[in-house]
Amino acid sequence: MHPNAKLIEQFYQAFQRLDGDAMCACYAEDVVFSDPVFPELRGVEAKNMWRMLTSRAQDFSLVFDSIEANDSEGSAHWVASYSFSQTGRFVVNDIHAKFRFKDGKIIQHRDHFDLWKWSRQAMGWKGYLLGSLPFVQNKIRQLAAKNLRKFSAK
Fold first, then answer.
1. Residue 40: CB atoms within 10 Å
2. Which residues contact 60 (CB under 8 A, 6 or more apart)?
3. Cα→Cα distances 143→24, 35, 68, 74, 150, Å
4. Are 62 and 36 in contact (CB under 8 A)?
5. For domain 3-113, is the CATH number 3.10.450.50?
6. pLDDT tens digits, 2-45
């Protein structure tokens, strides 16, 4: 297995254990992370996002597969299942990840998933009816950013 594939595996194994610090150890100091909820986080911000998510996880499980990597880039597929803390609704989020590496660390991590599908699960009928609207998706992003700022201030 390529060392960068092992790094991805290590990242997701730490996530399975809800060990945010071990996940962050896989990242370079200047890592850039993005997904549909957090469009761009850099460095400590990205690391704190994982610390926040792992510390608040409820009824959490994660599976991952399809890890591929070479010297500069990689990818993986993962599925997180959990209770969304704000509504208590159960979510199964199917995610495709792309990575870039430098000096044995992840320097870029981009997760791709369907935000409308996520909002339907997390928010029920409101998410089904309104979750595809840019206004609602921006509200989801604003709330997530606010929660990350609060967490990081601790």
1. 11
2. 18, 80, 81, 82
3. 23, 15, 33, 30, 11
4. no
5. yes
6. 999 999 999 999 999 999 999 999 999 999 999 999 999 999 99
